[in-house]
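Deliverable D2.4 — example input (structure tokens):
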């Protein structure tokens, strides 16, 4: 470290989440963190801090510092809402029935196509701000409610524009293969051709997506159709992610692992072979307890097996109008413990280190370590176990976004 840094935070405990440090949180008690520009330049026990001058010194008052939280799977740019569908599901209709009857995703497609970019921006902003208020500094946002070239581009541009006006990194994912649009009814292969030959190349040309996602499920696209989307994404040099095995076992996870996908998401119905394939390919699991809860599912993802195989387990909101209209990553941490059996430390890893893996950004984010981006949150708590346990009152005391002190929300 040079003799001068921009920001020095002292008198904090750091839950670094660095797996090379001992303990589930990679904790450094009584730590100091030095930042220059938007990077951490030094982190360690305060007594080992080299002599340094700083433009700004923050006294952490014995609070805990964590990496900025990462919500690695959202659909937060969309038109309208589906409160009516919520009521129908409470009355006994299933998500699949509503989807087959032209509701579900397609109802949001209608409202998203009808909305202007300004409307979409205005309705997405409070969702994004709710996440930011909780200490989220990176959000992935998917398209997938357009299902035509113009609306997919519109959604992705809005997602990029949200990042320009808020203290948050946004990564974008093209999910054009989310559902079959009504104008392609009975012609799923033709729609997949549109996705592969027109939508993805146009999205790539405008550099609007960092990854490509697809919904591989009996009510959406088959493994063969998704394989065509994967091949098209790879031709454009884009990594893939897959909504896989949420409602049934389909073989989607093995297909994703063969393609070295960044992540497979949902995965309630994966098998032992799927877990082995993920461990082999380094594909992360993204667990979405909010969708599980909203749909009142009963089958949980095989967390013990994923843990034993060393598969990184990320946790995300899946924030969307159908299966998780809940803009709270902290609640998802709590649900991942109560519903899926993660430990509080795994829950925090799930929204930091593992979430960075699921987005392919672990070289720059997800842990507190010299050289990585200084996205950090200071929490008024005595133990990092409180983050998954205590909701509502426990809010960030301070957020540092690329080393800049920002007001959360
Ligand atoms: O991740 N599974 C597909 N997509 C979303 C649901 C989208 C919707 O119902 O609008 C999900 O759960
Ligand atoms: Fe999703």
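Example output (designed residues):
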């Amino acid at each position: 470290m040079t003799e001068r840094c921009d920001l020095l935070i002292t008198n904090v405990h750091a839950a670094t989440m660095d797996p090379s440090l001992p303990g589930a949180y990679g904790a450094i008690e009584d730590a100091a963190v030095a930042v220059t520009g938007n990077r951490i330049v030094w982190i360690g026990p305060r007594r080992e801090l080299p002599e340094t001058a700083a433009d700004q010194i923050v006294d952490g008052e014995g609070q805990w510092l964590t990496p900025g939280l990462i919500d690695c799977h959202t659909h937060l740019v969309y038109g309208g809402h589906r409160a009516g569908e919520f009521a129908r599901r409470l009355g006994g209709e299933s998500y699949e029935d509503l989807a087959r009857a032209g509701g579900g995703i397609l109802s949001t497609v209608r409202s998203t196509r009808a909305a202007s970019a300004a409307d979409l921006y205005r309705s997405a902003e409070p969702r994004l701000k709710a996440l930011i208020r909780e200490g989220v500094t990176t959000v992935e946002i998917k398209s997938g409610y357009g299902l035509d070239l113009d609306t997919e581009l519109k959604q992705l541009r809005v997602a990029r524009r949200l990042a320009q006006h808020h203290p948050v990194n946004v990564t974008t994912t093209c999910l054009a293969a989310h559902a079959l649009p009504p104008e392609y009814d009975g012609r799923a292969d033709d729609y997949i051709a549109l996705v592969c030959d027109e939508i993805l190349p146009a999205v790539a040309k405008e550099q609007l997506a960092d990854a490509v996602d697809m919904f591989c499920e009996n009510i959406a696209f088959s493994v063969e159709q998704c394989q065509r989307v994967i091949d098209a994404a790879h031709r454009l040099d884009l990594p893939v992610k897959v909504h896989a095995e949420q409602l049934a076992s389909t073989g989607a996870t093995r297909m994703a692992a063969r393609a070295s996908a960044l992540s497979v998401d949902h995965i309630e119905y994966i098998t032992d072979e799927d877990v082995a394939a993920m461990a082999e390919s380094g594909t992360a699991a993204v667990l979405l307890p909010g969708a599980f809860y909203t749909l009142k599912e009963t089958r949980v993802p095989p967390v013990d097996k994923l843990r034993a195989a060393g598969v990184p387990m990320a946790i995300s909101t899946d924030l969307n109008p159908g299966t998780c209209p809940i803009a709270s990553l902290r609640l998802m941490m709590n649900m991942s413990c109560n519903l899926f059996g993660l430990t509080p430390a795994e829950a925090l890893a799930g929204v930091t280190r593992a979430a960075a893996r699921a987005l392919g950004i672990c070289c720059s984010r997800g842990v507190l370590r010299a050289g990585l981006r200084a996205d950090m949150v200071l929490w008024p708590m005595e133990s990092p176990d409180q983050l998954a346990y205590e909701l509502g009152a426990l809010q960030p005391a301070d957020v540092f976004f690329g080393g800049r002190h920002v007001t959360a929300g």
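The longest strand covers residues 4-15.
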